[in-house]
Amino acid sequence: MMNNSSIYIVLLAVILTSILAGCSDSFFVRPPQDQLTADNFYATETDLRMATAPLYNTVWFDYNDKASFTVGDARAGNMITTDAGYEQFLLFSITSGNDRLNEAWRSLYLAISQSNLTIKNIQQKAAGDISEVAKENAIAEARFMRGYAYSYLAQLWGAVPILTDPAKLIDQPNVRRNLTEDVYQFAINDFEYAAEHLPTTDDPGRVTQWSALGMLARLHHARAAFKAQDGGTLDQQDLDTAKEYARQVIEESGLNLVDNYANLFKLENENNQESLFALQWTYEGNTWGVQNTTQAYFAAEAALTGVGDGWGGGTGVSAWLLQQYNPDDQRRKATFMLNGDHYPELMQEEGGYTYEGTGASGPGSAIKKYIIGRPSDNDGRVGFMRTGINTYMLRLAEVYLIYAQAELGNQESTSDSQALQYFNAVRNRAGLDSKTTITHRDILLEKWKELAYEGQNWFQLVRWHYYEPDAVLQFIDDQERNMSFEYTQGGDTTYTAPPTNITAEHSDFNLPYPEADIVQNPNLMEEPVPYDFLNEEGTNEANKE
Description:
This protein starts with 6 loop residues before the first helix and ends in a 25-residue tail after the last helix. It has a two-stranded antiparallel ribbon with strand order 1-3. By secondary structure, it is mostly helical. Among the domains are: 7-198 and 514-543, Serine Threonine Protein Phosphatase 5, Tetratricopeptide repeat (Alpha Horseshoe); 294-392, no CATH class. It contains 21 helices and 14 strands. β8 and β9 (386-387) form a beta hairpin. Belongs to the SusD family.
């Protein structure tokens, strides 16, 4: 029985609905809607900017709403939770009908289909007096978003259908999956186009050339690992390319790390100098799907938000993640709350908020990232299940660490001065001492702590699993997921081992395809086929039934 998780329903809906689903803040100015159609809309350069605006929020809503934390953090072992949907990912017991699985798949293909539609409309319907540069810039934004979605699909599912024209899918719904290596290449091609045609600077929140180069660094490093499946060593050409792209972003962009790590996650600092790509949300209006809902689900208690949500009392940090933090690491308190932690920026009218959770009453901890508090803490910019704080998708700090990873490559360790400079810049900001030699595990754990609860940690394990699969299974085994703990400020932390250990299998590193899509398109379970890159229209003749 098909349900609305099917990408084919999603893609059809994109075609049949408005080309714009913008919101009402300054980043997304909604145009007059009377008699607006794709045929008459693309008349000015301003129209092109409006057309790409929904690619920064609405199409990603289902992924950001719950799936990002579920896929990126629960599956990585960062959580202990009473939520059954998250727990399936944590326990490696996920089924093809899991809601979070379906939301992730649906949202990624919605981003792809809306990007495809935007590209097609600009190419076919933009007014003749709009400059080629403006059209290329708008297409580059759409290709950036499409490439980002495919980069996730490649790492989460592997072989997936590469789709470039949603209209063709209606007539030919039974498409085959394409080879994983082709999905990687397709995403890289999109980012290369974006890097060539995006400006070096733009309005706050818009992606730039540096955003695309940062993603090329991430994706070439991922592909270096993917190629190691055959030979067991990271591909040196991709490593060198990743390092060069990372270098360009670090040395030529003029961007810098934010001085204080905790300030990254305060509303007043959105679109800061460290943000290379962030989803843009608003708390305003009645339109569902343009807001950030993270606070509603993960705030420790309703008193924190003051608007009737705040349902995060059953979800907290895993004991394993807690153990990774040095007591001096300033990222810890900005990432998750422990008993006795005080936050002056929350509940300001009452002198701040002190978390008093204990292991006996639940997880004994709570997530802090993206928890910004009450309306009175944020100039009124909070509502029920609504905040406007951006969601980071790529930060400069990650690019620093990608450079170090690419330089390390297949070596056991490195003392390369440039790699150490960038690696230690991230550590020093966190209040930690510099290292003089770094290993794969050093960088892995530094990146893990830097990006915890930003939906990225599972992707680290996927990339590692490509070339050292048994080591990753041992890493997961050592996490002792669902271990509980009792924490006291300044005192000893008591850990209680889980009754049974949670283990992973190699097959767990590709998510199951959603049941609804398999029913709609049985070809999804057939062997993947090569993608036809020579077909400029992208109709992908090779993957038709």
